[in-house]
Protein 1
Amino acid sequence: MDEIVLDEFLPLEYAGHSSKGNQLKWKADNIWYKADYMGYESLAEVVVSGLLAYSDVENYVRYLPVEIQYKGKKYMGCKSNSFLGEGEEFVTAEHLFRQWKGGSLSAEMSKIPNVEGRIEYMVENVINFTGLVQFGKYIAIILAMDAFFLNEDRHTNNIGVIYEMETKTYRLSPVFDNGLALLADTMTDFSLEKSLEECMKRVEAKPFSRNFDEQLDAAEKLYGSNMHFSFGKKEVDRVLESCVCKYSDEIIGRVRDLLYFQMRKYQ
């Protein structure tokens, strides 16, 4: 596993992109580094992106494990290459809505009584703003991932598109930000003392429904089934092996058991 000393770089608080607080991150030489904050977020990022290699999703951010040293402290973390080119910026769905219509996208969606309607409202607005007609299929992929990996932190500030400032055009963003998947928040909601069954009953989806399968079913009804996995237990174990030396057997075991359970559920 790589180690990196980041004493020369000021950390950025990873604020506004999580509903659960601020995570330290750094950018050095066009590489982003994120430190664990709520539990084992970096493990979740590494595992989710590692297993996406065994899917038909092509546009995603790959995370690798790294030990971060900063000002005399060590953090378990992950690293990823920046997915933005020169003159590009990531624009959230929330920001797009405020820019084009004023007001809050999440607030407007909350007024819509059914899940399918909320999804369609976001998608149609983003398509109107950007011209990205594939955005509905993109959302269906994200919600399929979130249902399988139990990502509890999907919201209108980490769903977005990439804007190219010179040409004033948009493109789809790679799938990223899965750090609060796999019950990674051991600090507040899913402590290791709780059973896997108890945690799975408590975890809730966002942003269209609290139920993962309800979100997924609605999205697939609108835009079809757009992703498929092709991994088994061997591939899960192989991906987990890259982090086994830095996380406890208890954490690795819980993530393994969770993934095995989800494989049985969605096979």
Note: The longest helix spans residues 249-266.
Protein 2
Amino acid sequence: MNETIITCRACTRLVEWREQVAREKRRAYRDSDYWGRPVPGFGDHQARLMVIGLAPGAHGANRTGRVFTGDGSGDFLYEALYEAGFASQPTSRHRGDGMVLTDAFITAVGRCVPPANKPTADELNTCRPYLTQEFQLMPQLEVVVALGQIAFDGYRRMVGTLGYTFPRLKFGHALHYPPAATHPALPHLLTCYHPSRQNTNTGRLTQTMLNDLFKQARGLLSDI
């Protein structure tokens, strides 16, 4: 499935933008070989935790080829995953840095970096089957963490295509929706502010808040 994702050219606007960013580069990374393609999920398909983000960062995952890797959002996320025992190290710099996820899988509702970090509804709809396939390939899944409103809405729409419908739920930070609030066959759902620079620089989301949320996710996993 990763190969199918990586070679996707379905959305002209996104293809043009991701390749333009990869050609022009940020000055700090002018010697880097940018990935410039769609970014697949990363982690263990036998994991019990799925983390869903928005889309690759222009000079993060669009550069490194691994989700939430090489930018400030990734620094926040992997620190929290490390503190909760899901990641082997607290930083994620590049695909060959030795990062290993344990009992966790990270993905996104969009696979290509969008201009201004704003994918269109049609672009998200085009990407949705990839998230659906990843979801279906995780038979042990117990907890989903949605990073941001768009990821939250994308997850809700994705499970809807599988026949799971549930009442409209509000989005906020650290809200917990157990299966009883969604559908008995679905995992626990935790909502979280996205670790974007806009949120972390303003203090809307702090490292402690994110660490606590993933410790909460750890606590929801069944004993094995």
Note: The helical segments are 2-6, 12-24, 61-64, 72-83, 121-136, 149-161, 197-201, 207-220.
Protein 3
Amino acid sequence: MIGSLRGKVLFKEGLKLIIEIGGIGYRVWVSQKIWAKSKIGDQILIYTYTHVKEEALELFGFEDPLDLKLFESLITVPGVGPKTAMSVFSFSDREGITSAVMKGDVDFFTAVPRLGRKNAQKIIIELKNKFGDTGELDLSEASNEVITALKTFGFSAREISDAIRNIENSEDTPEKKIKAALKYLGK
């Protein structure tokens, strides 16, 4: 699996970039936003998802590891493949997608090319269950670490949500935030 690529943008076509690293060009599917701002010759760092099919190996790239995590959640939804999930990212950013899931906004997803009403509803149901009550809060790496730690300790989505809101304005390290959350939850 290829987890990330750092190299020079060699070529742009469709919503794909060719990124050259050590004389080898990797073709990577990217969102409209990344494609538009990438210039030939630019140095770029992309976090990648490697999709293996019988006849091909495809890479899908993101600027932020949290975008990659949301992408991986999207493709777990039955009927949503990597190209459809990338269309969602071309349509909106992580915050917009997460907000649409939490609000149950079917119209948001049906406006995305390649997505019909049934799959839009599936995305909302599947991801809302995964996010629980913490989906809207899962926007920073520090909060993500706190959520993961609290889930490991067996706290419910409601308890985690309350704890995150209580420590949300804190600019401490993730470790200090976890301690503050545990203190808030009485552990």
Note: The longest strand covers residues 4-13.
Protein 4
Amino acid sequence: MEIIDVVLLGILQGLTEFLPVSSSGHLVLGQYLLGIKSPGNTLEILFHIGTLGSVILVFFYDIKKIVLTLNEKPTQKLLIFISIATLPAMIIGFVFRHKINNLFESVNSVGYALCVTGLVLIFSSRFNNNDRKHSLFSSAMIGLAQAVAIIPGISRSGMTITASLFLGFSPKESAKFSFLLSIPIIFGAGLLGILGLQNDNTFSLSIILAAFFSSFLVGILALRALLKLLELGKFYFFGIYCICTGLVSIFI
């Protein structure tokens, strides 16, 4: 694989990881449209590690606050809620990992999933938000929404933010919890990928660095843009995009 192909896919990953349009689905479409043969999960894991760095940088002060207040009850509760919300995706992802991997080969499946994502995002505009506090129930519901997003074409951020809005959280809190929730998921996938890379000579160091930095830098810009759009109440605009992209994917 040429380094320019890796950079293009890294830019695509960085843009779509945080925008609620499904990064996994767009990687499938990007590989198809660019005529790039899928190298398997290793390259996608490298992209995810880059976007993990984006989350850590953008939410650095929130993460720093969590680390410095680990002995305080509110922080301990938050970590419990994040753990509960993480479990469904981890369990379902492990049990159905082989079937899910097969979906990465189907552009049509991604198209249908993108249409579902689009409808969910448009529906999110109907919710009235307030300052609800997290609970075991809300964490479990958000976790189930995240688990559904294991399917390529279903947006993780779209599902978790919409679930939070539906449960009554403010847009700011919905986004913050969604992206804090992404850290253990991306870290876990990245750790497994790094262990696998020890015996993987498929990619050179330049390819690995290109994958990381392209997704990392673009991811920062995309994440800041999404937070701004949430403040402006324009979240549902992405729904229209997902439906249009999904329909094109189904018929190409």
Note: The chain has one domain: 3-251.
